[in-house]
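User: What would this chain look like folded?
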Amino acid sequence: MIETGRLLLRPWREADKPGFHALVNTPAMMAHFGGPTTREKHDLLIDRQMALQARDGHCMWAVEKRDSGELAGVCGVRIGGHAGTPVPEELEVGWRIGEAHWGQGIAREAAQASIAWGWANTSRPRISAWTVIGNTSSWGLMVRLGMARRTDLDFHHPDYAAGDPFGAMIVYAIERSA
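Assistant: Here's the prediction, encoded as C-alpha cells.
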C-alpha cells in the first residue's frame, strides 16, 4: 500500500496475528497500555483495523521491513475518536513499533508516510495523535513530526476507568498547510 525507503505499510492479514502479539506483548511495549495482555485482545485490535480498512480504505497498517519481510509494528491513519470525547471524528495517526526496531527511525519514517498519505487521500483539516503523558517517546515523536499540543482536545479514554492514569490522553495535532 505505502512504500518508503525501508518499509511497507500494508493492510493486515489473518496470518499476522500471532507475530503481532509476540512483537508487542512485552512489558516495555505495553508499559503505557496497562501491561501485557491476552492474544485475544490483540487479535481484536487487528480485527478492528481490518474492518476499518474495508470500510474507510485506511487503518493502522502493518509495518513490514522491505528487506526482510519482518513485521516491525503498526502505523497508519484511522478515524480514531471515541464517542463522548473531543476527538470522535479526528483523523488519528498512530504507531507501535516493536522493541527490536527501536532507535532506528522506523516509527518516524512510517508516521511521516502515513501523514503524507492522509493529506493526499483525505480532505481532513488536521491529523491528530494521542498518548499518555508518561509516554515521552511517543509525544516526543509527535513534536518531531511538527505536531503541536492541543490541550483543548485532551480526554479520558473510555476503555479505562475514571482516575486510571492509562486513560488520561494528551493530544497533539498538525494542521493541513494551505
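The two ends are 26 Å apart (CA to CA). If you want, I can go into more detail on any region.
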